[in-house]
Every structure is written in structure tokens, then in C-alpha cells.
Amino acid sequence: MPRHRSEVVAPSHEDPLVRGASAAVGGPLGGHATTGWSWWTPLRVVLVLTTVTFALGMVQKAPCVVGGASLTSMCYTDIDKLYSSRGFAEGNPPYVSSDERYQYFEYPVLVGGFVQVASLVTHEFFGSPDVADLPPDRVFADPEVAANVVPFTTVNALLLFVCALVAAAALTGVHRQRPWDAALFAAAPALALTGLINWDLFAVAILAAALLAWSRRHPVVAGVLIGLGTAAKLYPLFILGPLLVLCWRAGRMAAYAQAAGAAAVAWLLVNLPVLALNPAGWGSFWAFNSERGADLGSVWYVWTLLGREVSASTINTSSGVFFGAACVAVALLALLARRRPRLPQLAFLVVAAFLLVNKVYSPQYVLWLLPLAVLARPRWRDLLVWQACEAFYFGAIWLHLGGDLDPGTSGAVPSAYVLAVAVRLAGQMWLMGVVVRDVLRPWHDPVRADGRTDDPAGGVLDAAPDRTDSLAPR
User: Fold this and answer.
1) Is residue 470 in some structural domain?
2) Whole-number pLDDT of residue 58
3) Phi, then psi, of 130 in degrees rounded to 5
4) Does 239 reside within a domain?
5) What is the average pLDDT score of the chain?
């Protein structure tokens, strides 16, 4: 049954930052403003905000796509580069091409399908370049390929814009009484700065839809979407860990089994055809990530900048151990907290822990955390502080890659870039600490501050019994 508008939480009442800012437009929402339904529903406002934010992101990336600006312009995107270097310009499907002209596409299979669709649309409307006789390293210079770069990037941008809209719309529905929390995603600086660096928004949209399905008590649908999200980027798989612990504590293991089983089936159905056609092409993503060494943004990369070389195998083992230990810590938090944590809180902590110890921490990976952070800690001040740290790093990485932060002395540590990494990780760990505080002291949690709300995103977990009452400290 539809809820009355008066039940919707107004940010100008509940969020201190929004309440203060509302003075510029007449102050917090008044009682008479809640009567009747306006055309400007939370969903429509959030979609408009998403559109504006994403448009700003397209403008920010345009100089690199159209004019070939340098890295220090901070408008880099992978999309235009991979059009020619992975065979899409020639019309080769990813993973299954029999020739060895191009490196295999080093992303999970659903992202490959996404990019293939974008290339087919581009070639349908703007023509297919004839580059079969060119050496692969000269394809990018072909006039027909060069003419298609902007259309190809634009098609991808429009598809990713749809993904951003889907994610924003899903977030408005996860917490039915808190649809305005989705504005934290829609207006996020991180969305504008990083939304078009790569195809991460595709997985973000799928996971947001999965969270919506779970919140509406559709575990099979949620599981299918988690499986599809994992087929696009690995990190949606990590959601199954928090779900397992919370479902056990709530005595809802049947729902968990449905979700986990559906996720496995969905992932297999997407991956098995590609694996059967070309095992080497399918395995390129796994091989690439196993063999790569310490890369940008990670603590491991900083370690190498400080002169300590670490092999890829050592990093793989060490990061796996650290992540496993972090998962155990989150599980203990979930089991021993006085009140069962909310699903978004644990999901945010697990994904954030993975990024802290991973061998690479690309700028756009902040998008993995953004929807989870919006649901876990829906406070403008906290999310803006965190994203200010991300923005600081965003500027620093391009200056680092462009050589502008080079200390000028051979072998010297690029201390400005190391500082940027430290600021980024500190901002993330601070937000993680705030979420842990909310778990241990639920009266600090904006969602539970009313003393009545349990876990609106929890689906079958919401208001469920708690089988660990006897274990929880009093």
C-alpha cells in the first residue's frame, strides 16, 4: 500500500547540513508543504540531479576525447583508448576472436558485452572502419577510426548515463521512507569526476537494483542481479558475505540460499558460453589481475614508490590474507553488536576493506562505494568530507601521471602523490569508523535515530527476530 507523503523523511528536518542550507530558500520544510502530491516527487528530483551531475561529468571529460588534452587536464577516460586497442574498431567481438591481432579485453564478460553493444551501435550509425590490413598498433591513426572515437565515446557515455539513472532510481526505493537519500548519489562530486573513466557504473547500476530487489523481499531476483553484477565487476560478489551473517543471525537462511543460488546460476549462465568458446579469452580478466603488480592508488604502489619492491604473488597472498581478516572482523561486528547491523552498513565495510588492501585502487573505484555509503551513512556532511578526500586524490593522480608532481631528483619519492594516497585512504577509513560507530551505537545511525526503524534495506531481515540476543553484550 502506498505510504502517505508525511511519512517520508525530509532532509531539511533530519540532516543538520541540509537544515542549515535550507535557510537560503526559506528554512526547513513546513507542515503545509507536506499536503498533496507535487509533480516534483523525490524520484523525479533525484533523476534531474543525476542528469545535471552526469552532464557536468561529460563536459569535464570532453577535452580529452575531442581534443586529446594531456593527463594534467584531468579528463582522462579509458573508453576512447580501448576502442582501437582491443579490436572494437575492427568489429572483433571480445574474448572469442580467433586471430591474435589484439590483446584480449581484460574485463569481465558483461562489460565486454556492454562495450560490444556500444561499438555495434556506433558502426551502425557512423560506419565501420576498414582496418583489417593495418598493423594493430596503427589502427588508432586510421582516419575512419579517429572519426569514430567521439561517437563511440558518446554512445558509451549515454549508456552509462542510463546506468546512473537506474542506480539513482533504485536508491530512491531501497529506503521507502528515505527516498531523498538518493540525492547523495545523484549530486555526488565523485559521480561527475569518475563516472566516465571506465565502465564501473554498469556494475553499480546492477548492484543498486539488486539492493532494491532484496529490500522488496525478492531474494531470487536480488541473487540474479548480484550474479550479473559479479559478471560485470567482481565486487558485487562481496555482498553475499554480509548477507550470510545477517541471515544467519535473523534465522533467514532460506532466503539467503535462494539469493546465493540464483547468483551462482546467473553468473554461470553468462560466463559459460564465453568459457566454452575460448577459455583463453575468458580467462584474460583473471590472468591479468593475477599477474599485475602493485598499481596506482594502492598501499602496495606507495610501498614500491618508497623503494620496496614486492612481487605480484606476494601481493596476491598478502592482500588475500588482509581482506580475509577484515571480513572476519566485519562478521564478528555483525554477530556481537547489540543490535543486528543494517545490510548497507556491512556491505559498505566489506567493499571498503577490499579496496584498502587491493593491489590497485583506480580513481573510479569510489563509485563502488558510493551507493553503499549513501545507504550506510546518509549524511551530507560525512559523505562530502569523504568525497573531498577523493577529489584531492583525483587531482593528484593525473598530476602524478603527467609528471607535474615529479620531485625532480632521480630516485626521489613523489611525496605529494604519496600524501594524496594517504589523504584518500584516511578519508575512507574515517567514514568506515563512523559506520562502525553507528553499528555499535545505533542511536547515532541516521536511519535508526527514531528508535523504531530497523533495516529498511534488509528485506526479510527488517524487523526479523534476532537469534544472537544471548551473545550480544548488554
Assistant:
1) no
2) 97
3) -100, 95
4) yes
5) 91
